Amino acid sequence: MKIVIVIDLIDNLTNGSVMTARRFADGLRERGHTVRIVAVGADGADDVEVKERYVPLLTEVSAKNQIKFGKFEREKIMKAFEGADIVHFIFPFKLEKKCKQLADEMGIPTTAAFHVQPEDISYNAHINRIPGINRFIYGYLRRSFYKNFNRIHCPSKFIANQLDKHGYKAELYVISNGFDKNFRPPETRVKNGKYEIIMVGRLAPEKKQKILISAVAQSEFKDKIHLTLLGNGPLKKKLQRQAAKLNVDCTFDFLPKDKLIKRLQESDLYVHASTVEIEAIACIEAIACGLVPVISDSDLSATPQFALDARSLFKNDDAADLASKIDYWLKNENERIMMGGIYAASAKNYQLDNSLRRAERMFADEINDFRTSKAAARDGEPRALKDTP
């Protein structure tokens, strides 16, 4: 297949959706497909780079969360679309909306992914306490973009259920974003001078690193714990001040894939404190490296799906409960090591190869349906999109 992926930016390696798009593009190419990326920062031989679009106020706010907006350059993008079997959209912003219109004009089938969780928007805009705001955002995204698609990629069953609940009528394909097979347990696990606890994720309000820092401060093993927070974001300085004030031994960093794998393999426990999460590939990667996770039980997050029992779940936003779960796993080393192997085995369901096969099926379904509908339209029966209230 000749596949075009449209995403506002592709050059920020701290953005989870960007990393997902890059993994999918590389994986699909390895499976024999021709893939072009249309984005700010696209630099592959067949890719098309677009200029960044400046949006007053929003650009400055979005930059803090590693987001850039692409500019619609019609002639350039039209050339990228020529000969494409399908165009797949990652975000629901202006670039994608204009590119969707162009793909329709050119008679090219399209699919979309749902990577922008409304709760992420409301938390970062500090409007999450407004009653009904997330329901409004779900509705806006549906009316302004997703109603125009018959098939939507959902990274988890959780987000598929949310879309169904909020009136999305497209066929929902639950496809994990998938993890690289290089994330695996070490042949031998090192013995650390301190207990190494790690969390990976954007340093933003909804990710709740502050709860983890508070939990470590309350742990009976506080002086024997070294905490690593991997990621960038607007709360970095605030979190650094919190760790210093509570006298928590904490390192802030961002690592390329090879060093991230090594750090995970050398750690003792993984914590995912986020309240809002569509999937959390970072958690899967840690589990694949043989780490037992401790995960927030938030009802706005898909990540609890990875917990194999209650010992790996803590009450959302409850530092004391998280501290008790951390202490349990640090006290019970043999149990932690045994469960680490069981967790690593459980991660195999989320390997990237499985996700790529499911994505191929989604693309093929849309292409075949589009061609059938196009033939029917020639006979006077125009293709209809799913009904949207």
Number of domains: 2
Instruction: Give the strand tally.
Output: 13
Number of helices: 14
Form type:
globular
CATH class of the largest domain: Alpha Beta
User: What oligomerization state is this entry in?
Assistant: single chain
CATH architecture title of the largest domain: 3-Layer(aba) Sandwich
Output the structural class: alpha/beta
What profile does the largest beta sheet have?
7 strands, parallel
Please give a structural write-up:
The chain is globular, with a radius of gyration of 22 Å. The two termini are 33 Å apart. The protein is built from 14 helices and 13 strands. It has helices at residues 16-30, 58-63, 74-81, 94-105, 118-124, 133-144, 157-165, 209-218, 236-245, 257-265, 281-288, 319-331, 333-346, 352-378; strands at residues 2-9, 34-40, 48-49, 86-89, 110-113, 151-154, 171-174, 195-200, 225-230, 250-253, 269-272, 293-296, 313-314. The mean pLDDT is 93. Helix 4 links the parallel strand 4 (86-89) and strand 5 (110-113). The chain is of the alpha/beta class and 389 residues long. The strands form two sheets. A seven-stranded parallel sheet has the order 3-2-1-4-5-6-7, with helices on both faces. Strands 10-9-8-11-12-13 form a six-stranded parallel sheet, with helices on both faces. It folds into two domains: 2-178 and 352-378, 3-Layer(aba) Sandwich (Rossmann fold); 195-348, Glycogen Phosphorylase B (Rossmann fold, 3-Layer(aba) Sandwich).
Please describe the structure with a list of short key phrases separated by commas or semicolons.
389 residues; alpha/beta; Rossmann fold; seven-stranded parallel sheet; six-stranded parallel sheet
